[in-house]
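Hi all, long-time lurker, first post. I run a small reading group and we've been trying to get comfortable going from sequence to structure in the token notation. Rather than ask abstract questions, I figured I'd post a concrete chain and ask someone more experienced to write out its structure so we can walk through it together at our next meeting. Sequence below, copied exactly:
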Amino acid sequence: MRKALIYIAFAIAALIAVVQIAAAMREGQALRDFPPEGQLLDVDGTQVHAVVMGSGPDLVLIHGASGNTRDMTFSLAPRLAERYRVIVFDRPGLGYTERLNTTGATLRQQATLLRAAAQQLGAARPIVMGQSYGGAVALAWAAQSPDDVAALIPVAAASNPWDAPLSTFYRITSSRFGQAVIVPLITAFVPKSVVENAVEAVFDPQSAPEGYADHVGAALTLRRVSLRANADQRANILSEIKALVPLYGSITAPTEIVHGTADTTVGLEIHSAKLVDQIDGATLTRLPGIGHMAHHAAEDAVVAAIDRAARRAGL
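-- Answer (accepted) --
Happy to help. Here is the structure in token form:
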């Protein structure tokens, strides 16, 4: 019996070692394949990755869950850089921005960090556009520091409470067991086809633009640190949204909301249809038939909304 237990212990230890080695190898390959696009800032002791391009009024772009700067630099940021000084950030724990903590950086903590990073880059009062989860961070930025946002563009933004439970995937990956056991297994062994299908699913009913999957660097999000950070953020966002809603009345920046009518990830009627009445002077552009990734599927409309917000802000 004792020998059997010893064999089992050795087998478990060997399995753990194999998983950790395989995960580390994949992470190393991800870092080689998708290096930082921009500069690494030290913001109050936290590394923040920022991509800066163009000239003109300062415009910050904030990516959604599971993303990084490459989601914005694929097409949108270079196009906007023709007339704006565009700043694209990795959110905490994603891409090349460090985690703020091990419990999931809150929306307000992330907004505070990115606001400080923008100020370090000389953007004291930028236009702020955020998509999906990034839209919630943009709302937190404008709500808690209204004088430091020139204009606000939430795109398919999570903004109001919802009833649906947390998905099984995030329930598992945000749990202690999931973070210790399941996350390393995902990092080590998830097939490329699963990642490609997930990318396509978030664009539904549209398809991802040609070349997007190769550019976006999904492998960066499959690193253990990013899977854990992303899971914690997703597990906590509902309670944080509930706390944020009462602050929307303090937002003073001209606000142009954009949302697709076919978005099944962040439903328009649950979120933006309510948000437009919660921010004084806000307008809502409904995009017929467009899904969650409006900043790609309806890029012209998003650019037009940013331009309108800039004009309303006198920029």
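A couple of things your group might point at:
Residues 2-33 form the longest helix (32 residues).
The CA atoms of residues 196 and 204 lie 13 Å apart.
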